[in-house]
């Protein structure tokens, strides 16, 4: 089977890198047809005049290379909403699979609250989502919760959607957990992640050290962080595995938005792949993979006191922490390893073919 991975997708974003790696590991010949727009940009989707021009130029480049090379199916990677028109033309009658990861409407309206649902921008984002989903023969979501949301948003039947978990790129994220003293949060500082809850919990456990690594919309919150929170603006991707393997426990997401309840973020899969224990919000999406005190510590979203209690438990009960770490790694191996997801992605492609 030969597949073209197509579009302006961000090459170094974990969802794209991991899907390509999984497919190749499953014996699929993956050819990349890529036009760069988002690489080396830490703040994506800032669609000013410059970004709009870069996107338009990239789409023309993709269309100009429409001939040459035979393939069985095409996958449009994240972020790829604006690539779907070009992809449909290049794919022709061959199956077109969209791997969007997010809804633009959900990201900018419901989660980050940059626009209201009834605003012109909000309505435009909903139309872009719907058009991109409808252009695909199949849309692949990261959780059952997300798949159901996408189907409802675009008014499409459930059979037009499939689910492949996010997983982790195993050349970077592999076992070897050797814990030190700190808890680790890594991610963009956006509402989805619940930074306010992490900081409020940190104030309740002043003897426990928490490292927050990342930058974003909520940087200003860290200007008044408590003394036990260290802020590291950036960790290079290839060093993230070492960071997870050396942390006492990894922190997932704790936001209270509807989107937060539908996703299992990269950071959770990456920590599980490294064999590190995880504390994250108890959400419908998390329950698709995790069980409290079996392979993670799950706490109510947005509940700083519950998170503080979980931090104390993790720091004070190393036997429990080790059991959760082992259970988390086992859940990863059974449901989200590159081998498992490679077979799942191949199954999805064979189904659409």
Summarize the structure.
With 353 residues, the protein is of the alpha/beta class. It has 12 helices and 12 strands.
Description:
The chain is of the alpha/beta class and about 350 residues long. Helix content is about 40%, strand content about 15%. The chain contains 12 helices and 12 strands. The strands form 2 sheets. The protein has a 6-stranded parallel beta sheet with strand order 2-1-3-4-5-6, sandwiched between helices. The chain has a 6-stranded parallel beta sheet with strand order 9-8-7-10-11-12, sandwiched between helices. α9 (about 265-275) links the parallel β10 and β11 (about 280). α2 packs parallel to α3 (about 85-90) and α7 (about 195-205) packs across α10. The longest helix is centred in the C-terminal third of the chain and has 18 residues, at about 320-335.
Question: What's the main sheet like?
Answer: 6 strands, parallel
What gross morphology would you assign? globular
Number of strands: 12
Strand content: 5-15%
Secondary-structure element series: EHEHEHEHHEHEEHEEHEHEEHHH
Mean pLDDT: 92
Q: What structural class is derived from the secondary structure elements? A: alpha/beta
Fraction of residues in helices? 40-55%
Straight-line N-to-C gap: 10 Å
Report the uncertain regions.
none
Over all CA atoms, what is the radius of gyration?
A: 20 Å
- Counted by DSSP, the helix tally is 12
Strand order of the largest sheet: 2-1-3-4-5-6
């Amino acid at each position: 089977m030969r597949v073209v991975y197509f579009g302006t997708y961000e090459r170094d974003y974990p969802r794209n890198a991991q899907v390509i790696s999984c497919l190749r590991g499953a014996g699929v010949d993956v050819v990349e047809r890529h036009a760069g727009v988002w690489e080396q940009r830490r703040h994506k989707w800032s669609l000013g005049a410059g970004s709009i021009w870069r996107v338009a130029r990239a789409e023309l480049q993709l269309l100009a290379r429409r001939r040459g090379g035979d393939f069985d199916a095409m996958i449009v990677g994240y972020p790829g909403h604006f690539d779907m028109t070009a992809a449909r033309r290049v794919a022709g009658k061959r199956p077109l699979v969209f791997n969007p990861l997010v809804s633009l409407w959900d990201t900018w309206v419901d989660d980050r609250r940059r626009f209201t649902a009834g605003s012109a921008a909000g309505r435009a984002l909903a139309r872009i989502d719907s058009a991109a989903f409808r252009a695909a023969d199949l849309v692949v979501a990261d959780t059952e919760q997300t798949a159901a949301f996408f189907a409802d948003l675009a008014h499409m039947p459930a059979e037009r959607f499939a689910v492949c978990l996010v997983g982790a790129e195993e050349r970077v994220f592999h076992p070897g957990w050797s814990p030190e003293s700190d808890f680790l949060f890594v991610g963009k500082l956006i509402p989805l992640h619940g930074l306010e809850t992490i900081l409020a919990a940190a104030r309740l456990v002043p003897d426990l050290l928490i490292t927050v690594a990342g930058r974003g919309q909520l940087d200003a919150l860290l200007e008044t962080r408590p003394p036990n929170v260290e802020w590291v603006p950036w960790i290079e991707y290839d060093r993230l595995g070492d960071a997870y393997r050396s942390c006492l426990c990894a922190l997932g997401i704790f936001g209270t938005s509807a989107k937060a309840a539908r996703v299992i973020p990269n950071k959770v899969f990456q920590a599980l792949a490294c064999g590190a224990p995880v504390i994250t919000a108890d959400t419908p999406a998390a329950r698709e993979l995790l069980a409290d005190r079996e392979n993670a510590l799950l706490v109510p979203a947005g509940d700083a006191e519950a998170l503080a209690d979980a931090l104390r438990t993790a720091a004070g009960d190393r036997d429990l922490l080790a059991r959760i770490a082992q259970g988390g790694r086992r859940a990863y191996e059974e449901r989200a390893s590159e081998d498992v997801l490679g077979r799942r992605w191949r199954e999805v492609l064979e189904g659409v073919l």
